[in-house]
């Protein structure tokens, strides 16, 4: 019936032998299951009856799916499957499911049948239970804490989903499918791994025993349409005045660092800022996982690479950066500076690649500078602190702070200029910031953006380049 994708010498599928799972699956409805259990032992019935109906239905579909998945893998010709269209494959799966259910005399209602077919399709072609979440555009992050708990982040808020894996083995199989596709391996001796999914999403997994209660997976979904400056202004991440200031800063080639905590919107901000770069500039980007989507024509993208299983083949961000300097860039954008590449980044910023940008993990501009100092110290550079600071202060012009506030909103909470050195200390001035005033009863933050009243150190530079910002930008705004 579905010969096209069936293996030429298809033997009787594994499901032909009755198994425990199939026997279980034969019990058509939860009520029937309860009846069977009641007959078997009253104690068991007491356990079954109060069980959540929905949960049982899901378990049953889960069991069927597992069984059918095995049948599918046995009977489908995987090579032919690669060229099959989606419709063909869905039809094929539907046909196999029908035959299987008929053979086993299992009655499923239309809705359950549809769920089963969709889940099977996701298992065969994609990432099983994760597939629905990956396709859901409202989901930003997917966080798996063992097989039974999947959280997602929607609109800045973490929510527990009702999607689960069948068990740890199922979860491990999906993890394995992802990492083996990129030529990596994850197991007890190699318990964590970074990878990029086919759609560009960033993926990290850690497996037991390091992950104590089951594998941990974090996925940062790739947004096809990255939030642009206008979107961020619309979302209240910053104001139009701030956007005008940032445009002047980026266009006049200030060196910018975006600082922020995990998931605070650093990469998004960096990407949006890059839209202010002129189209005729040659930009090189260096990232661990390529997330940036630059709109310019002249862009060279690099992705660093961790060592392989034998500990070989590493290409560090620093290697990329050193090489980038030989590739005649006008600007260099480093996705995140977190290690020894800081030295080359600062050097690049100091030596003719002004207008370069990166992000760092820090909670304020001042904290960001300390992070840079620490990274330099960790890189084994023996330089007096004053010299380190002077290097930083002449390299970095601007620190933009991205924050994820407690109500889930993401905002640019500060724009701070580095103006030079005063004695041993780096001098900075905050130009614009987000002023918090309180909290609504439903825990939404009340606040507004305001200038601090300090005029930009670079105002003259902006003017010379044709970005004559109105003085009003620097005037503080009173709380409404
Ligand atoms: N202002 C915003 N409003 C709404 N969503 C946002 C905003 N900024 C970023 N996001 C979303 O938040 C998520 C995290 O953003 P992003 O990847 O930029 O953070 P990050 O600080 O770079 O994270 P990480 O530390 O993991 O690298 C993304 O899905 C992004 O689309
Ligand atoms: Mg990031």
How does this model look, in words?
The structure is a single chain. This protein has 480 residues and is an alpha/beta fold. The chain is built from 17 helices and 15 strands. The protein has helices at residues 20-26, 30-40, 42-48, 53-75, 78-81, 86-104, 110-125, 130-135, 168-181, 229-234, 240-251, 266-274, 317-324, 341-350, 365-378, 385-395, 459-464; strands at residues 139-145, 150-154, 157-160, 192-196, 202-206, 216-220, 256-260, 283-287, 299-303, 331-334, 357-361, 398-404, 410-422, 425-439, 445-451. Strands 9-8-10-11-7-12-13-14-15 form a 9-stranded mixed beta sheet, sandwiched between helices. A hairpin with a 5-residue loop joins strand 12 (398-404) and strand 13 (410-422). Helix 2 (30-40) packs antiparallel against helix 3 and helix 14 (341-350) crosses helix 16 (385-395). The longest helix is centred in the first third of the chain and has 23 residues, at 53-75. It starts with 19 loop residues before the first helix and ends in a 16-residue tail after the last helix. Residues 1-49 have low confidence and may be disordered. Magnesium ion (MG) is lined by residues 266-267. The site of adenosine-5'-triphosphate has 16 residues, from helix 12.
Bound molecules: adenosine-5'-triphosphate, magnesium ion
Which spans have pLDDT < 50 for at least 5 consecutive residues? 1-49
Whole-angstrom Rg = 28 Å
Q: How many β-strands, per DSSP? A: 15
Number of helical segments with 4 or more residues: 17
- Beta content: 15-25%
Biggest sheet statistics? 9 strands, mixed
Principal-axis shape equals elongated
Percent of residues in helices: 25-40%
Across the major sheet, the strand order is: 9-8-10-11-7-12-13-14-15
């Amino acid at each position: 019936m579905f010969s096209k994708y069936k293996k030429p010498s298809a033997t009787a599928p594994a499901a032909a032998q009755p198994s425990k799972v199939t026997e279980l699956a034969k019990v058509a409805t939860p009520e029937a299951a309860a009846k069977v259990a009641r007959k078997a032992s009253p104690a068991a019935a007491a356990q079954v009856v109060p069980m959540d109906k929905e949960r049982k239905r899901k378990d049953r579909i889960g069991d069927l799916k597992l069984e059918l998945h095995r049948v599918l893998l046995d009977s489908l010709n995987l090579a032919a499957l690669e060229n099959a269209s989606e419709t063909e494959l869905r039809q094929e799966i539907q046909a196999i499911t029908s035959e299987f259910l008929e053979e086993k005399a299992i009655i499923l209602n239309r809705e359950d049948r549809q769920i089963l077919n969709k889940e099977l399709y996701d298992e065969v072609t994609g990432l099983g239970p994760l597939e629905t979440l990956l396709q859901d555009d409202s989901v930003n992050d997917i966080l798996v804490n063992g097989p039974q708990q999947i959280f997602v982040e929607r609109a800045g808020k973490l929510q527990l989903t009702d999607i689960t894996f069948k068990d740890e083995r199922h979860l491990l199989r999906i993890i394995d499918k992802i990492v083996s596709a990129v030529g990596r391996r994850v197991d007890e001796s190699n318990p964590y791994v970074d990878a990029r999914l086919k759609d560009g999403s960033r993926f990290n997994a850690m497996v037991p025993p390091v992950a104590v209660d089951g594998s941990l997976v974090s996925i940062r979904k790739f947004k096809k349409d990255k939030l642009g400056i206008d979107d961020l202004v619309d979302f209240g991440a910053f104001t139009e005045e701030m956007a005008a200031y940032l445009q002047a800063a980026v266009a006049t080639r200030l060196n910018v660092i975006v600082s922020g905590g995990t998931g605070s919107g650093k990469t998004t901000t960096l990407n949006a800022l890059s839209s202010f770069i002129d189209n005729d500039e040659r930009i090189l980007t260096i990232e661990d996982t390529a997330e940036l989507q630059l709109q310019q024509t002249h862009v060279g993208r690099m992705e660093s690479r961790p060592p392989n299983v034998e500990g070989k083949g590493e290409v560090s961000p620093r290697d990329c950066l050193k090489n980038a300097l030989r590739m005649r860039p006008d600007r260099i954008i480093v996705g995140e500076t977190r290690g020894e590449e800081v030295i080359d980044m600062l050097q690049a910023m100091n030596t003719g690649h002004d207008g370069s940008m990166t992000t760092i993990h820090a909670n304020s501009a001042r904290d960001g500078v300390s992070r840079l100092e620490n990274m330099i110290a960790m890189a084994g550079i023996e330089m007096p602190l004053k010299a380190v600071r002077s290097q930083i202060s002449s390299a970095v012009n601007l620190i933009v702070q991205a924050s994820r506030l407690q109500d889930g909103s993401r905002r640019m909470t500060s724009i701070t200029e580095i103006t030079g050195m005063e004695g041993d200390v780096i001098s900075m001035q905050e130009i614009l910031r987000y002023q918090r005033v309180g909290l609504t009863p439903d825990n939404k933050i009340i606040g507004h953006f305001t200038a601090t009243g300090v005029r930009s150190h670079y105002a003259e530079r902006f003017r010379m380049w044709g970005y004559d910002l109105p003085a009003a930008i620097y005037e503080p705004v009173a709380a409404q």
